[in-house]
Design brief:
This protein is of the alpha+beta class. 18% of the residues lie in helices and 28% in strands. The structure holds zinc ion (ZN).
């Protein structure tokens, strides 16, 4: 896929585990798709991904499994739309 940062072909999607918040408010989200580019070595989340993360955070109690640390699995969504870029 084409990198939205530098415009070159060759960007890849990686799925990573990310953590948000800290200590008692910690939320871990698994399988978050991150676009990474071998050319400019930048990585970013798509607008859809960011939106989904916000939704998971808002509904963390229902998304998170019963676990000492809340863990939510990211829903595998389409990454076709990449209008907004946030590093
Ligand atoms: Zn790039």
């Amino acid at each position: 896929m084409i990198c939205d940062i530098c415009g070159q072909e060759g960007a890849n999607i990686r799925h990573v585990t990310r953590s948000y918040g800290k200590k008692t408010n910690l939320l871990i989200i698994e399988n978050v798709p991150v676009i990474s580019c071998p050319h400019c070595r930048d990585s970013y989340l798509t607008a859809d991904t960011l939106h989904e993360i916000e939704r998971i955070k808002l509904h963390r109690k229902s998304f998170a499994k019963k676990h000492p640390i809340p863990v939510a699995a990211f829903r595998d969504i389409s990454t076709k739309h990449q209008d907004v870029l946030i590093g």
